[in-house]
Every structure is written in C-alpha cells, then in structure tokens.
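Thread: Modeling a multi-component assembly for a lab meeting

Hi all, long-time lurker, first post. My supervisor asked me to bring a structural picture of a complex we are working on to next week's group meeting, and I have zero experience with this. I have the sequence lines for every component (672 residues in total). Could someone generate the structure of the whole assembly? Inputs are pasted exactly as I received them:
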Amino acid sequence: MDLAMMLDLYRDMWLIRAFELGLEREFKQGNVPGMLHTGLGQEATQAALAAHLEASDCFFPDHRCHGINVLAQQRHGGDGERIMAELFGRATGVCSGKGGSLHSADPAVGNFGCNAVEGAYMATVLGVALASKLREEPAVACAIIGDGTCGRGEFHESLNMAAIWDLPVLYACLNNGYAIMTPVGQGHASADIVDLARGYGFPCEQLDGNDIEECYDKIENAVAHIRAGKGPYFLEFKTWRWQAAFAGEFRPESEVKYWKEDHDPILMAGEKLVELGASVEELGVIEKEAREVTEEWISYAKESPMPDLAKATANVYVGWEVAGS
Amino acid sequence: MIAANTPASVDGPTDGPGGKKSKTTFVRALNDALDLGMERFPEMFLIGEDIAEMGGDFSVTKGLWAKYGQERVRDTPLSEAAIVGTCVGSSMVGMRPVAEIMFADFVGECYDQIVNTAAKMHYMFDGQFKAPLVIRTACGGGFGGGPHHSQSVEGWFMNVPGIVIVAPSNPADAKGLLLSSIESDDPVLFLEHKALYRARGEVPGGYHTTPLGRASVARQGTDVTVVATMRMVPMALTAAEEAAKEGVSVEVVDLRTIRPYDAATILESVAKTGRVVVANEAPKTGGLGAELSARIHEECFAELLGPVVRVDGLDTPIPFSVPLEEVVLPDEADISAAIGEAMRNSR
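Re: Modeling a multi-component assembly
Sure thing. I ran the full set together rather than chain by chain. Output:
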C-alpha cells in the first residue's frame, strides 16, 4: 500500500477514534442519552470496510457503528455532524433523533441502519441482496456483525439462504473476544467464528482486524468476488474493544496492555507510515484535525434543536396518521 | 403435510375479465389476487415454504410458479426469520414481497423480524425507509389441528404499532383486501382462516381492491351490533338469522382490518343499536374483544343500553381432540347466547 492511501486510512481511523473519545466524554458528562457502545479499538476494520463500500451498496452497521456511519457520510457526500446530532437525539440527526446510536440510518450513503436486536439484520440483509441479484446490480449487501451475534438462529438461516441463492452478501464479523463479558470461546463451539461459517460452502477467511493493510486488501478481494456475481463471502476480523463491560474492566491487565499498546490499530498504522516516509509531525496534525472536527460536531449537536414534538407520532404508518396525545 | 380436513383445491371457476362477478372459493379468490398482483407489479415476488411447484399447503399459490418462474415464486428452507427478513430487506429497496408463513402458529419464528424490524422501519428511521410487504398466514382452528396448527394470532400483534392486520371473512374481501395489502406501503399481516378456505361467494372479476382500515356492515340491524372477524362473521350472520326469528334485529359489522381498525363504523352502529357483542376466535384475555369493549365503553358509554358482551376462545391452548376443541372455540351458539345476554342485560 502506498503512502497516500495509507495516510487516508490513518486519517479515517483517527476520525473514528476522536469521534468515539469525544462522545465517551460527553456521555460521561450526561449529555448523551441512552446507552453507549463505542468502536474504540476496532477502527481498522471499520475504516477498511468504509473504503470499499459505495453509496450504491448497502451496509447494516453493528452495535459499535458510529465510525463507519461517519465515514460513509464523509465518503458519499453526507454530513458527519448529522451522525453526532443523532446520538444527541437532535432534530438535525440523520433520523431526526428518533433512532439514536443503535438505529442510525441514511440510505443516501448506503447506511441501512443498525438494529439493536443483534442478529436481526442478518436476516434483513438477505432481502437487499436478493433485490440486487434480481435486478442484476453489482452491489454488495454487507452485514457487520459481532461475535456475540453469531449465537443467534439468524446466523444459520442467513448464511444458509445466502449460500443456496448465491446472494451478494458480505458478512463482516468483528470478533472482539467478548459478548459483553462472555468470552467468545465460552459462548460458541469455536472461538474462531470462521469455523462456524465454513460449513456453508462459500469463502471464509479470518484476518487480523487491527492490521489496516490486511483488512483493506482482504475486503477488496471479497468485494470483488461478490461484485463478480460469485456469491457470499465471510470475513472474521480478530479485534478487541477498548470499552469494558457495564461492571467495569474485567479482562486481565496483560490482555488490555497487549491490545491497547502492542496491537493498537492506529499505533501499528503509524509505525508503518513512518516506515513509508511519513513524518511524526504529519501524523500529529492528522490526530489534531480529527479532534478538532469532533469538537465542532459535538458543538453542532449540542446547539441543534430538539425534535419537534409532533415527530413522536410521525411516520408510524405510511398510510395512516396516529393521533397525538 | 396437509391436514386431512383442510381444503386443498383451487379448482373452480376463474374470474372472468371485465369485472364480471362469479361464484368462487376463498382460496381461488386469493390465488387470483396473487396472480393479478404479480401481473401488475413487476417488483412483486412470492416467498415461502413449498409455495412453488407444490403451490403451498393450502394451494393458494397453485399455478403461479409455472406462470412466473422460480425467481418470482421462491421456495425456501424452514427459515421463517430469513423468509420475513428477505421480505423486509427487499421491501426497503422497493420490492413488494408477499410471504407465506404456512401456519400462523409459526410466526414466533419470525416475530422479531415483523415486530422489531418491519413494523418499526418507517418510524425509527423517520420515514427514510418503507416496508411494503405482506405476510400471509393460515390461522384459526376447527379442524383438529392441535395446539400448533390452530391458533388465532391477531392478539400477538395488536399491541404493535406500525403493523397492519388484515382479516377477511369472505372470498370477495379476501381478493380485494389482498390486492390492497399488496398495494399498501405498510407491512401487512394477512390472516387467512383455514375454515374459510373452502367458503364460496360472489367475487368481482378482474383487478379489484377493498380498502384497508374499513369495516363493512355485513347485515343491517337495529337491536344489537355484533362486531366479528374472520370465521366469526359467517357464524354471526347465522346467529342473526336465528335472532330474527325471535324478533331481534342484529347488525353484523365485519371488522376486516384489525389494526388500525375502523372505530367510526363500530361506533356508528353502536350509536344506533345500543347493544354490542364482540366476537373473535382468539383467547379472551388481552385480545381484540378486550380492546373493542374498552373503546366502545370509552366512547359510547352514554349510548350503551348494557355492557358489551364478549365472545372469544377460552383462555387455553387449543386441544387436538375434536370435542375438546369444540369446548375451547366459540361458535354460532355462543354468539346466539351473547345476543340473548345483550338483549336481557340492557336498560
């Protein structure tokens, strides 16, 4: 990978990290309602996916999805601040504040919306993929899932149906090691999710989800396979989330140190960039700009109005109005 | 499997072109509606278990696979969540899928897709997506189907904003309501009572729609209103004939759409009669009868001459053995008794 492309991906990863760090701070201060699941630590996979998905494709983002949601906005002519505003429940959010973190969608940039019921969109993605196939469009329908999601029955139903119908589905499984606090090997027959996917007969690969180059290349290959009409593809990204559980940090100190210091996707990419000839100052500027943009977006979100109260009863049905209180 | 005592044939007269009415079965009317929908909407497709070559457990899709091919009449494995998920996802991008869930009892397998995905799609993304899909399913008892092939599931969905529940009682409405459901931009749960599949009636020929969200007055009367759904409608009409012999004039309102339901037609009828029976096959507690009774009491208390009388299934699962099933499910005699009670227990 050349320096320019690597710098672009580095910039994308920093935007995700700065966004999530800023959001986490605001959440702790009580400015963001509801629950918060950040993608801190998983930036490489999200940035690499965003780099390969077009506005004419579709992706169903996972629980830790703010990063890819923002990058899709940036890449396809949307507004990143509208993702932030959605998280603050404001009228200027992509769903007018009605969806929040776990239901942010914007079809104009290919974002078909997270579904807070883990696994549900593994079934839904089949329909988008089938429509693409019937219309002979070379589009990719991507379901971004976590390791925990693979415990759902929809995992089997979806992979089986995608296989028998050769549907253009990219399964991007971000295996971050835990479903809340349950280790992946305790909750599944294999700690390597790719083992569960192999029986369906389409290509499955496991890769280092924190290595941006590997992620970028493997996704490029998978997307090309799908666009060529060769059917579904399953990628398992081995990664790790910074966010602990509601009960606090539960993972061994050595594990935390490994992933945050020795195998952090941004630190690893930074080292590679220096090898390729980037300066440390240049990288510092990228970080600084990402933090500045984040603060601008946070200000935008906070200054945005709350939704009109009539929105509470709007769009329940297409064909009927629902009476307000 | 095909239950021994269920209808399996769509053979019979087809609709003539040009709006000519002809007498046909409920199954045939549904089959015609699907055929006409497939002809009119290139983005429509059918999906379900053994709906293609076999034509479905009840023959509702018979002949359509041969006519439209396997891309548009699509067999699936036993994967109800994936069936409905396929409908939801494809409808998000402008397709008009019609799924068959073989028995309504199986909707538990796809309940999340219906309730949390399809029904909330338009709302939670604030209008950016629509889910114009139809889920047809065979419901209801009366044929010895046992606990998992006989249930009336409307109550499971009544508390779900965003879903449309359609429940025809006769062949003409089956055809018209199904075509309206296909046209609808909202997700529709389309309930087909198995005991009605063989019912015959006049059906308008050609493309014909019946509006969703509108009840019909199936019989005019002045003393008691019976609000009924699906199989309870023909039973209510029979009970009304019996009551007429006793000098009691019964109005029968066929609800047709259970959610969002047509309160105006009900309230108008109640204002006229002052006495109400609500007849629904599902278990009594927390069901349609409870909802309608509450609404009528809220909005028509002054006009009521007595309390609303409910006719429902018992609060039990549905047993297999026929005499036991008869104990559990409501019938004409229960409606007649309820009419009598409404007359006696009134001012």
